[in-house]
Amino acid sequence: MFQALREKLRSFKKKVKDDILEEDVPGDSVKGKKEGAAKKGKFKKRKKAGKGADTGDSELLDGYEGGWAGKKIGEKKMDDVLWELELALMESDVAVPVVEEIKNFLKKELIGKKISRKYDIDVVIESALKKAIMNVLSIDTINFDAFVKSHSKPVVLMFVGINGTGKTTSIAKIAYRLKQYGYSSVIAASDTFRAGAIEQLERHSAKLGVKLIKHQKGSDPAAIAYDSIEHAKARKKEVVLIDTAGRMQTNVNLMDEMKKLKRIAKPDMIIFVGDSLSGNDAVEQAIQFNNTVEIDTAILTKIDADAKGGAALSIAHAVGKPIIFVGTGQKYSDLDEFNPNWMVERLFE
Ligand SMILES: Nc1nc2c(ncn2[C@@H]2O[C@H](COP(=O)(O)OP(=O)(O)OP(=O)(O)O)[C@@H](O)[C@H]2O)c(=O)[nH]1
Ligand SMILES: [Mg+2]
């Protein structure tokens, strides 16, 4: 996953390394050199410990103001290189405001800072990039398991999104996960629109051993959600998972129907399910669904096939709601908890 974006970030680092260091900054006093040496020791330790997504080593830049010979990143060269990064991110379907935020963050982090010639500039750039990415992803993260645990039961979760993004599959994956954690759940077959939708859920429900509440095709989705919640209350089921029909965000009638479903079911969490392969479109859809029913979180599916990573980098920032899971394949267990570290680790692995 994310191969193309990872490659682009790697070539950005190389470009910076080749082009950017311009001004020599001489070392000063002997005393300064000693201080520099002491700090270098500290840096070495940090570097050893600094594998993975720990991005807290901005001291690489800030902490070494005097005492040793180094180089500085000049603004003009930085602008040229950042322009290339901007193109690379756009080609990866990263939304424009997110590109801007990453660029501005890097500028603040890198321009005019002194870097010792002895240190690998790659480490410095990578650290700054990781921090920039963490920054755009750190939107009110929600821990799904803690949410389910702490919430009064039954917890009602409603899944929305356009056609074919992976709503039903994600519901089955979550039902499987909940079962692993010892929770009982019931699925509401509130997609009464698409041919085969109810049968698809019947297959999952049989395999997973999870109760399915269904009416006939064409019946009222809100009534099914209502019945499912009543069933959960009566049988002490802890979680209700409401499947809904895929709908284009531009279809006013279907978007209104979804509002009605929300009014009746009063979900504790509305989860937008987006297909990562649709890039910027997924971001636009998330914005539209949020405007209509106010989503709480997002799941991004098909990440296993997504080379670009743009939607994963952009949705939370664009909508102001966190991604809680990513779909990583077609098996029930192919659901990863998403958090900024998860993304950063995969982009720089
Ligand atoms: N590779 C991969 N495929 C996925 C993932 N999630 C869903 N799919 C596939 O995407 C297709 C559509 O999934 P569904 O769950 O039926 O999508 P939906 O949103 O319910 O579709 P509608 O009900 O028609 O709106 C199926 O073939 C799934 O197996 C994922 O994370 N990775
Ligand atoms: Mg479906």
Short descriptors:
349 residues, alpha/beta, 14 helices, 11 strands, elongated, binds magnesium ion
Give a description of the structure.
The structure is a single chain. This protein is of the alpha/beta class and 349 residues long. Helices cover 53% and strands 15% of the residues. The protein is built from 14 helices and eleven strands. It has an eight-stranded mixed beta sheet, with helices on both faces. Helix 12 (279-293) links the parallel strand 8 and strand 9. Helix 1 packs antiparallel against helix 4. The longest helix is centred in the N-terminal third of the chain and has 20 residues, at 30-49. The radius of gyration is 24 Å and the shape is elongated. 45% of the residues are buried. Magnesium ion binds next to helix 8.
Question: What's the quick description here?
Answer:
This protein has 14 helices and 11 strands. The chain has 349 residues and is an alpha/beta fold.
Instruction: Compute the CA-based radius of gyration.
Output: 24 Å
Strand content: 15-25%
Question: Structural class of the secondary elements?
Answer: alpha/beta
- Strand tally is 11
Overall geometry comes to elongated
Helix content: 40-55%
The neighbouring-strand order within the major sheet is 6-5-7-4-8-9-10-11
Question: What series of H and E elements makes up the topology?
Answer: HEHHEHHEHHEHEHEHEHEHEHEEH
Bound molecules: guanosine-5'-triphosphate, magnesium ion
pLDDT averaged residue by residue: 87
N-to-C CA distance? 11 Å
Count of runs of 4 or more consecutive helical residues = 14
Largest sheet: 8 strands, mixed
Residue runs with pLDDT of under 50 for 5 or more positions: 29-59
